[in-house]
Design brief:
With 282 residues, the chain is α/β, with parallel strands linked by helices. Helix content is 41%, strand content 23%. The longest helix is centred in the N-terminal third of the chain and has 19 residues. It binds S-adenosylmethionine. S-adenosylmethionine (SAM) binds next to helix 1, helix 2, helix 4 and strand 2.
């Protein structure tokens, strides 16, 4: 079994390598896929003028900019992301009341008891030691502070992610099989596990709202196949596959998605948790 340090190092390498590169290259499509889940989380966060906010795993900083607008020039947003390349793009927008840090949010020395809100859109499922990470966020929050994030539920509840992988798998080298406690896209699917992590980290008044909606995967099957394997489990398998294997895998993905292709693109069901919690004294 890998140690939390090894798991964290693996994640850092992935997001500073193919993960960050793929995210950057596919941002427009990703935004169409996950934007509404993010909007629901931003609405629940309800950032107010003058507030101090941390955006965990901020990526290209889209949500950081929305939060910065909400808190205004009297407030401030700190975007933290482990991927140097994504932080460099986020910084390029030059938002006056937002600062970006390239580093591990799990261990970043946030100013203690200073923030009103810790927010994340799909950026909290990748920690080697999640309890330690959330303890770190807890200590950064004011006693009245709040935590709001959106994360994917289980793989089985997310056909948009599972269906292409299941179709391609027979033609590819073995895909990664993360254990139930390993970091990754679906690491927070099990509500009981997330509850345990947040309670151990000292959060209270936990709330889990299921969000279910169709996820846009691409404007056509050809479009999806062109981008297949840019990130996620398929990226790792494609990296070790021969061109023939990749061709067969893509053909299988195309076949399985055929019934879902419409004039408006290809969409399959997706499922998230919108999680909110209060800091220790909140
Ligand atoms: C699925 S992406 C979400 C990005 C962004 N929040 C968005 O919605 O566009 C996950 C992000 O978490 C970042 N990340 C992963 N592990 C991290 C860590 N330990 N500390 C900070 N960021 C991390 C990745 O680099 C990546 O940008």
């Amino acid at each position: 079994m890998k140690t939390p340090t090894e798991l964290a190092a693996e994640q850092a390498a992935y997001w500073n390598g193919p993960g960050g590169k793929g995210w950057l290259a596919s941002m427009e499509r990703i935004e169409q896929g996950i934007g509404d889940f993010g909007k629901a989380a931003l609405a629940a966060a309800n950032a107010q003028p003058g507030e101090k906010v941390i955006d965990i795993g901020c990526g290209l900083g889209g949500t950081t900019r929305t939060l910065a607008e909400a808190v205004g020039l009297g407030g401030h947003v700190l975007g933290v992301d482990i991927s140097e390349q994504l932080v460099a793009s986020a910084r390029a927008h030059r938002v006056p009341n937002a600062t970006f840090v390239a580093g591990n949010a799990a261990t970043h020395p946030f100013e203690a008891a200073s923030y009103d809100l810790v927010f994340s859109r799909f950026g909290v499922m990748f920690f080697g030691d999640p309890v330690a990470a959330f303890k770190n966020f807890q200590q950064a929050l004011k006693p009245t502070g709040r935590l709001v994030f959106v994360c994917w539920r289980t793989t089985q509840e997310n056909p948009w992610g599972l269906v292409p992988v299941r179709a391609a798998a027979p033609f590819l080298p073995p895909l990664p099989r993360p254990g139930p406690e390993d970091p990754g896209q679906y690491a927070f699917g099990d509500r009981a596990r997330v509850e345990r992590i947040l309670k151990e980290a000292g959060f209270s008044a936990l709330s889990f709202e299921p969000l279910d909606q169709l996820v846009f995967m691409g404007k056509s099957i050809a479009d999806i196949l062109e981008n297949a394997g840019r990130f996620g489990p398929l990226a790792r398998a494609f990296a070790d596959a021969t061109p023939e294997q990749i061709e067969k895998a893509k053909a299988a993905i195309g076949e399985t998605l055929k019934p879902h292709e419409t004039a408006e693109g290809v969409r399959l069901p997706g499922a998230c948790w919108l999680v909110t919690a209060r800091a220790r004294g909140g």
